[in-house]
């Protein structure tokens, strides 16, 4: 048997320990390859989708690469420390340190090469399915499978360099103690777990402070808190696992009536030892799980914004013309012709918008005519309203503004015209986009409006197109939209005498972007969760030999299978669900702050989407727990 065969058999012999590590590595390579396949797809070259792919998939690839580097570094360090007994025996038998380093380098490179090969193979196998999903998300006519060297070269090059870095660094991670200490390995005594009460209370205090600040944040401070809270919560989480939890264990161990019960005694005693060994691992699992929750939750909140986009933009097309716009009639006729060519049903109403200064606030008020509003309301099947001479209604700029204005009554004078009006209540239906007419707008009765029109020309003319099948308008007005965008890019926007908004076009871009980002985020989150699960899996199976001996002794003392499951549950549940629970808490309070941001931006609720995310990921964790417990019990019950 030569040296390479010896390294290969070492990897095969430890396959049970390396199983989760290999799974996470293979999945990381596969996801990276799928992202790369979309990045280089010939069908999206030169299109807007390519820009979205570069932004979304490129960023995801970078995050995935550096996270995999951290994951491999941490995992390899843990693997090597768990094999100190084996290394001690090899050194005792005469192996030189140089040869030991070569062995570790060869083993790591073998695992890396296998992961790259298997991950790339499965990535290409699932590429067609991946393209089918992406095609549905971005509504492309076709996204065929293709064969190119670029995705393969990028994936193999990126991960091969990563594994070479880890292979070179890995030998330095071994604690070169005396051979006797290496051979003793995990058999070193595990006595009581030392902890600092001060750090324990600091951990509780930092987490409590982070949660309170996140729960009671406001629009004015939420951006600043987004930079302050993550470091506070991270430090608090570390102290929570290293000192706060041991302090709680110590409190319960001191209560003999609670502690001195046969199952509790065994479970708590073993739990203290596991906590001593795995505090840092629990901290890393919590942070990684929180990253997974937040990545999916934030992207899910974007889809919530897209799903409520129609409520915020009830009109199909919006065109606003200002004085001096010579293209007004030409643009409106073009929009009408394009709608008719595409056989799209529409209704449009022309709104001359007057402006006057209100004596009540000394601010300029935008004014529209009630009969025009009723014409538009009928196209939405809303009941028309009536106003007498001298009466007006507030036109709320947002849904939340309606509740604030509906119960208000204001008596004011329009200063330029001298017309006295009484503004009582707010218009009850949302038929305009937010801030469409203006932040300070009213609906005036027809008689008083006509008096205004006789005295002055309108400040602008607003064309409101109500289009029931509004998503079909993504190809309407593209020439006008490009002209507006080009004017902004060239800095000529001040010379524009009109504005144009196409919610159908905007929604198609948002839907494609958010759906693609959510899909990328889901795959990234799965990598995070697999990595987090692999840490726990590894710790379980590296201590499996000692656990088998302990439970074998207990079985000889009369422990039944039912009692064995009870003890295993009490040992495994904290390891799986305490980090998970802390991650859920972190994410929930982070989402409270995110809701504040969305309230300020668009007044939408993201509770439903985030609840689905958290419940769905929790179900996945429960399934994963029962799968690992089943395998763990089968090994525990197996004869030594």
From TrEMBL:
Keywords assigned by UniProt, alphabetized: Cell membrane, Membrane, Transmembrane, Transmembrane helix, Transport
The keyword Oxidoreductase is annotated on this UniProt entry: no
Entry keyword annotation includes Transcription regulation: no
InterPro entries, per the entry: ABC-4_Integral_Memb_Prot, ABC3_permease_C, ABC_permease_BceB-typ
Pfam families according to UniProt: FtsX
Spans through the membrane: 20-40, 52-74, 103-131, 151-174, 201-229, 235-252, 281-302, 516-538, 576-598, 610-628
Protein name: FtsX-like permease family protein
Organism name: Sporosarcina contaminans
């Amino acid at each position: 048997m030569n040296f390479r065969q010896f390294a290969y058999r070492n990897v095969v012999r430890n396959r049970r320990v390396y199983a989760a590590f290999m799974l996470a590595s293979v999945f990381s390579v596969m996801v990276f390859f799928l992202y790369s396949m979309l990045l280089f797809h010939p069908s999206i070259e030169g299109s807007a989708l390519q820009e979205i792919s570069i932004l979304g998939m490129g960023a995801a690839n970078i995050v995935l690469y550096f996270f995999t580097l951290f994951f491999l570094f941490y995992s390899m360090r843990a693997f090597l420390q768990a094999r100190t007994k084996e290394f001690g025996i090899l050194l005792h038998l005469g192996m030189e340190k140089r040869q030991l380093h070569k062995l570790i380098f060869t083993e790591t490179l073998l695992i890396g090469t296998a992961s790259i090969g298997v991950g790339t193979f499965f990535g290409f196998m699932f590429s067609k399915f991946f393209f089918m999903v992406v095609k549905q998300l971005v509504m492309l006519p076709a996204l065929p499978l293709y064969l190119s060297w670029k995705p393969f070269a990028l994936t193999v090059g990126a991960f091969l360099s990563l594994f070479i870095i880890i292979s070179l660094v890995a030998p330095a991670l071994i604690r070169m103690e005396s051979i006797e200490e290496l051979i003793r390995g995990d058999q070193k005594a595990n006595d009581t777990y030392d902890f600092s009460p001060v750090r324990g209370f600091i951990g509780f205090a930092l987490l409590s402070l982070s949660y309170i600040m996140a729960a009671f944040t406001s629009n004015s401070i939420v951006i600043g808190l987004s930079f302050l809270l993550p470091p506070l919560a991270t430090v608090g989480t570390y102290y929570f696992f290293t000192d706060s939890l041991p302090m709680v264990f110590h409190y319960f161990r001191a209560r003999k009536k609670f502690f001195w019960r046969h199952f509790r005694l065994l479970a708590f005693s073993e739990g203290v030892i596991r906590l001593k060994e795995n505090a840092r691992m629990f901290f890393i699992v919590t942070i990684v799980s929180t990253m997974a929750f937040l990545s999916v939750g934030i992207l899910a909140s974007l889809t919530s914004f897209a799903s409520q986009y129609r409520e915020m933009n009830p009109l199909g097309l919006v065109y606003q013309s200002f004085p001096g716009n010579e293209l007004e009639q030409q643009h409106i006729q073009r929009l009408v012709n394009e709608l008719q060519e595409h056989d799209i049903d529409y209704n449009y109403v022309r709104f001359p918008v007057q402006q006057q200064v209100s004596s009540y606030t000394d601010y300029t008020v935008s004014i529209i005519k009630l009969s025009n509003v009723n014409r538009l309301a009928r196209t939405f099947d809303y009941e028309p309203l009536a106003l007498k001479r001298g009466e007006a209604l507030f036109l709320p700029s947002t849904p939340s503004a309606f509740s604030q204005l509906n119960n208000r009554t204001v008596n004011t004078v329009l200063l330029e015209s001298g017309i006295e009006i009484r503004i009582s209540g707010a218009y009850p239906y949302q038929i305009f986009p937010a801030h469409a007419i203006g932040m300070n707008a009213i609906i005036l009765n027809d008689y008083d409006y006509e008096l205004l029109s006789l005295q002055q020309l309108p400040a602008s003319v607003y064309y409101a197109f109500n289009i029931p099948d509004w998503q079909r308008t993504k190809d309407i007005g593209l020439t006008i939209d490009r002209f507006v965008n080009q004017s902004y890019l060239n800095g000529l926007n001040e010379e524009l005498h009109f504005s144009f908004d196409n919610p159908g076009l905007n929604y198609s871009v948002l839907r494609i972007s958010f759906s693609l980002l959510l899909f990328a985020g889901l795959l990234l989150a799965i990598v995070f969760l697999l990595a987090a699960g692999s840490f726990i899996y590894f710790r379980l199976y590296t201590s499996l030999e000692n656990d088998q001996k302990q439970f074998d002794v207990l079985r000889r003392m009369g422990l039944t299978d039912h009692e064995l499951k009870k003890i295993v549950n009490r040992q495994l549940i904290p390891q799986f669900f305490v980090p998970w629970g802390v991650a859920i808490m972190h994410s929930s309070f982070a989402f409270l702050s995110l809701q504040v941001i969305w309230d300020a931006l668009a007044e939408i609720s993201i509770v439903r989407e985030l609840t689905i995310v958290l419940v769905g990921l929790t179900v996945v964790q429960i399934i994963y727990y029962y799968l690992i417990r089943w395998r763990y019990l089968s090994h525990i019950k197996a004869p030594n």
